Amino acid sequence: MTIHVSPEACPALVLNADFRPLSYYPLSLWSWQDAIKAVCLDRVNIVSQYDTIIHSPSFEMRLPSVVSLRDYVKPARNPAFTRFNVFLRDRFTCQYCGSREDLTFDHVIPRSKGGQTTWENVVAACAPCNLRKANRMPSEIRMFPHQAPYHPSVHDLHNNGRAFPPNHLHQSWLDYLYWDIELEP
């Protein structure tokens, strides 16, 4: 049985020059068009390919499934303080009740009481818990985060990101995504 795969369904995993993914979450992927452009501009090496072939009048090639950058890109040392990264640090889980639904964020020490919008004072919270806590101190309402908020490293976020793989992982990507995790005996 032959399964037709359209080129739109063939993203390329992008690795740094050291063969580590540029990012785990979101996973560093390029569309097939961007991957082909980078190959033609000699910015990447093709590590693995799909069986899908593209054609032009003077050109034919298999679509890359894994590419590595020719030049090493130094990873950021400190992750940006964004809503997404707070959720990723907290594993997309309300730090008060454990829900994964309707997430927002909460200032542990409310801004109305001098709390700052920083890594050390913001946690992921579901909307019901956030409304219940409102602008009260954790001790007033006896709502304490399961994990104290902290400033994560890029490594922390990458490790958490591995727990949330995308819906589709191509077989050719697996050796590059999980090569550095500890093996179970």
User: Helix-strand pattern, N to C?
Assistant: EEHEEHEEHHHH
Uncertain residue segments: 1-7
Radius of gyration: 21 Å
Q: Which secondary-structure class do the elements indicate?
A: alpha+beta
Distance between the termini: 38 Å
**Shape annotation:** elongated
Give helix % range.
10-25%
Number of strands: 6
Number of helices: 6
Main β-sheet description: 4 strands, mixed
- Mean pLDDT across all amino acids: 86
Strands of the largest sheet, in order across it? 2-1-4-3
How do the strands and helices of this protein lay out in sequence?
Layout: E1 12-15, E2 29-30, H1 32-40, E3 44-56, E4 59-69, H2 83-89, E5 103-107, E6 122-126, H3 127-133, H4 138-141, H5 154-162, H6 174-177
Parallel strand pairs: 1-4
Antiparallel strand pairs: 1-2, 3-4, 5-6
Describe it for me?
The protein has 185 residues and is of the alpha+beta class. The protein contains 6 helices and 6 strands; from the N terminus they run ββαββαββαααα. It has helices spanning 32-40, 83-89, 127-133, 138-141, 154-162, 174-177; strands at residues 12-15, 29-30, 44-56, 59-69, 103-107, 122-126. The longest helix is centred in the N-terminal third of the chain and has 9 residues, at 32-40. It is elongated, with a radius of gyration of 21 Å.
Q: What can be said about this structure in brief?
A:
The chain is an alpha+beta fold.
